[in-house]
User: Fold this.
Amino acid sequence: MNIHALIGLLSLLMALPIAASEYPLNIRSCERSVSFSKAPQRVVVHDVNMTAMLLHLGLRERIVGYTGFTRHKHRDPWIDDALEGVPQLASRYPSIETLLAVDADLFFAGWNYGMHVGGPVTPATLAAFEIPVYELSESCSWVMPQRRASFDDVYRDLGNLGRIFSVEPQAEALTAQMRQQVAEVRRRVAQAQHRPRVFLYDSGEDRPTTSGRLGMPQALVDAAGGVNVMQDVAASWTQVNWESVVERDPEVILIVDYGPSTWQQKRDFLLRQPALKDVRAIREQRFVPLTYLQVTPSVENAEAVAKIARALHPALFKEATP
Assistant:
């Protein structure tokens, strides 16, 4: 999405009817209940995907700072344009002092997205300073049992953010649009006779970083009519061995395009590895680049599903526009 498309979307959202949340309200966040006496006015948000959620909801003016990403981490310039004038408070994880310095009244983050279990910044440590935390639903697998990542995680976050910030019509509109896009893809791929084996490559040379069944890519591949070859791994973002990739013989490899290396450089690295030469996706050079925003929980997950599905089942999308 470019800045012009974002402006158009925000204009549409601003035209939606106003439906105010009733305060005080309680929101479920992982295993906790978080109380709000009013809509937050000074939010600090971690990572590009959660920042994009707030921007899509028309909440740019509520963001007093962001953490966890730089221009080098992602490939979505519209976000940098939209955040012009908003300070980057920390390139990695923030400290408690970081949040106190901007008088934050909400920290929107997740486990391994701005917080570590037992780390200095958690809902428990921030409670002492009366800074509430809303946790990214997909990340709850780090602190509670989860069965499998799904689009319901994203829909839940959008709905909860809509209530927290009293922008429920905007959240409902975004969710409805996503549901429609994903449903159309599911309708097409339901006709497929085969579900291709898919491996997601994030980064790593000695050992690849990928996603098991608790990470958002699982939901993307499921909806796109594929099989995540790492779905037996009960983890979200994790490292595996190259041997396990070879054993599972993926037919398509998704490559996350972020960080200092381009997706083409990551692809070329994979093509140079002797151990992978017999993997079908390598032999046939079937690669699908996706942005960091598309593979982490975000509104952009819907477009990612469509892109993956077209690559997995091209015959079912011949008449569809790219």
